[in-house]
Design brief:
CATH topology: Beta-lactamase
GO biological process, one term: response to antibiotic
CATH class: Alpha Beta
Low-confidence stretches: none
Structural class: alpha+beta
Protein name: Serine hydrolase
Strand content: 15-25%
Keywords: Hydrolase
Number of strands: 9
Oligomer: single chain
Distance between the termini: 16 Å
CATH superfamily: DD-peptidase/beta-lactamase superfamily
Helix content: 25-40%
Pfam families: Beta-lactamase2
Shape: globular
InterPro entries: Beta-lactam/transpept-like, Beta-lactam_cat, Beta-lactam_class-A
Length: 254
């Protein structure tokens, strides 16, 4: 995995990444505990917090909330800004944030749960350096680390915070993510159905976090970037880094 660090050493910007073999326990990281802007990737722990509230019966996925036109966020992703104002179930909001990274849906969930409760769940998950400071698309940064975004996926994989049913539900939804232009991009197309990921994007910031359940084993891999010359530059770096990671697994793991 040292090849990944050498590659990043020659790139422009700030980077962190974390890799873990969930079966053997092998890990490799680079600045993986450094707090960085998580952008939409913060929806991963938000989704876990929401499902914990559902699991504890404080909420139901069938609960309905109204989203008005004044609550819709005009962003590069998501469908809710195009829909007429109406009642949506929490299940619909959950699908919107996991599959589409919909800002309108995520901000409604943040409003329902509240910052204090979400951050309480983050601490309960052992995420010491992950914090929700603001709604998405607004001023302020929501922070995490490559290690802790990866830990969110390992928590789902090991069913450590949610029960089996809810852990599998989130993994299934994230496996259907519509954002496959970073970690999955250069990987074999027949592996995509075995890769769950949650991407993030802001100006000169690109992130992707993933869980890979593939023939060679089960792995988590997260890359965070900032201060990039351009977003395309960051997308290219993450996708190439993921291909390097894949080739190392393919050659060296049995």
């Amino acid at each position: 995995m040292k090849e990944l660090k050498r590659y990043l050493d020659s790139r422009i910007g700030e980077f962190s990444f974390y890799f873990e073999d969930l079966k053997s326990g092998y890990t490799y990281g680079f600045h993986h505990k450094k707090q960085m802007d998580a952008a939409e990737s913060i929806m991963l722990p938000i989704a876990i917090a929401l499902m914990k509230e559902v699991e504890d019966k404080s909420l139901s996925l069938e609960d309905k909330v109204t989203i008005g036109d004044d609550e819709k966020y005009d962003s590069y992703c998501g469908i809710m800004k195009y829909l007429n104002s109406r009642e949506f179930t929490l299940n619909e909001l959950l699908i919107a944030i996991t599959v589409q990274s919909d800002l309108t849906a995520s901000n409604k969930i943040i409003e329902i749960l509240g910052f204090e409760k979400i951050n309480m769940h983050l601490k309960s998950m052992g995420l010491k350096n992950t914090v929700i400071n603001s709604k998405l698309g607004e001023n302020g940064n929501n922070l995490s680390t490559a290690y802790e975004l990866s830990k969110c996926f390992s928590i789902l994989y090991r069913e450590e915070y949610l029960n089996k049913k809810n852990s599998k539900l989130l993994i299934e939804l994230l496996t259907n993510s519509q954002f496959r232009n970073k970690i999955p991009f250069y990987l074999p197309i027949d592996s995509w159905s075995s890769i769950a990921n949650k991407a993030g994007h802001k100006e000169n910031v690109e992130i992707d976090s993933s869980l890979l359940n593939i023939k060679k084993g089960d792995f988590v891999f997260t890359v965070m970037t900032k201060n990039l010359p351009s977003n395309v530059y960051g997308i290219t770096i993450i996708s190439r880094l993921a291909k390097m990671m894949w080739d190392i697994i393919d050659s060296n793991w049995r």
